[in-house]
Amino acid sequence: MRRISMPGPPRTAALRMLMVMGRDRLGMMTGAAARYGDAAKLPVGPKTLYFFNHPDTAKHVLADNAGNYHKGIGLVHARRALGDGLLTSEGDLWRKQRKVIQPAFQSRRIAAQADIVAEEAVKLVARLRRHAGGEPVDMLQELTGLTLGVLGRTLLDADLTRFETVGDDFAAVQDQAMFELETLGAVPHWVPLPRQLRFRKARNNLGRTVDRLVADRGDASGDDVLSRLITSTAAEADPRVGRDRLRDELVTLLLAGHETTASTLSWTLHLIDRHPEVRERLRSEAVSVLGDRAPVFEDLHRLTYTSMVLEEAMRLFPPVWILPRKSLAADEVGGYFVPAGSDVLICPYTLHRHPEFWPEPDRFDPERFHPDRRGDRPRYAHIPFGAGPRFCVGNHLGLMEAAFVLTTLVRELDLTGVPGRAVVPEPMLSLRVRGGLPMTVAEAG
């Protein structure tokens, strides 16, 4: 195996890099890509991070040699916050969990759920219309409510809107998981920090929510995710293990399943607010394809420009901005030696802005995803839902939801940044943090 020296800061920069990661994780990665190119070795505190930023190396780590890589920094520490759900588990447990959940995302089930998604989009329009003439609307909050509603009805056959604290509880869990990443898990759980206390309360609340969902279900005769998980975890020899695993799975699914789509839609609205010509073309397509009716599953392949806009929004602001891995054995990646036990990072945010594959990479241009232009780029230059065996289990449902909601909103509402109308928060700093969590359904697969 070749031992080519990787570029990167000297080891003496480890403390400074640790401070940078705590202050601006995204800035650390974009700075590394700009300065060192396709690969860099980054000393961060006591760790060394191996950063790769090319479609070929992404393909190698995430797909070709995926068996040599488990979940890495951040997601390992997230286990302390999220337990052993599909997001954080590995090996046989992950394969068992995937096998249980995968059928709920089959194309026939997604097609059958299209009417539910369309109904929730219409409800969102009605809620927004009630704000006409009033103060600007926090669209991230509204879209999060919508995605929780869709998630509950499509995957759990349950009404999540009756659990009033769910959104705040998820936010507290995400804050704790990110804190675990920033501190590399060095702060003991018993330290009574306010964030830690909020997290404990949120976990208890979410546990009660899960227990209520299970109790309300009664039997597990359905074919939705909740029924499948109840049946699977009931087979555990130790009932306590089954109960804990059921909680972990549902909390992970609920957290991951609503955050990605809400983030994608919020960023999309942010972008089309600044590009009115795109917004008008979206509206024209919505009117042409749908007329005055609600979208149906068969419309998806006709909403071509809508899909292009969503793809470009996910290129600029991918729902999963970083994919951390840990090497099990030594490997060679892009010609560089990676020791066993190394922390390896693939960053879709920087990969999606690689100038070799994306001319004017910071410019919003949906035409990049015109069907006639897709063949010009490597497959792994655009990986908003991850790649390889852990590719997003819910990507098709998420894309259908995003397309239906976007096309309904642009047809029915004036989504401009005028006070009193539905606007996207700016500068959206909260979205930069929440959308930057490396724990979404795209990584829950």
Topology:
Elements: H1 14-23, H2 25-36, E1 39-44, E2 47-52, H3 55-64, E3 69-71, H4 75-82, H5 91-101, H6 107-112, H7 114-129, E4 137-138, H8 139-156, H9 166-182, H10 194-217, H11 225-234, H12 239-273, H13 276-290, H14 304-316, E5 323-327, E6 331-333, E7 336-338, E8 343-346, H15 348-351, H16 395-412, E9 422-423, H17 429-434
Parallel strand pairs: 2-8, 4-9
Antiparallel strand pairs: 1-2, 3-5, 5-8, 6-7
Helix pairs in contact: 1-2, 4-9, 7-8, 7-16, 8-12, 9-10, 10-12, 11-12, 12-14, 12-16, 13-14, 13-16
Describe the model.
α4 (75-82) crosses α9 and α10 packs across α12 (239-273). With 445 residues, the chain is of the alpha/beta class. A five-stranded mixed sheet has the order 1-2-8-5-3, with helices on both faces. Strands 4-9 form a two-stranded parallel ribbon. Strands 6-7 form a two-stranded antiparallel ribbon. The two termini are 31 Å apart. The protein is built from 17 helices and nine strands.
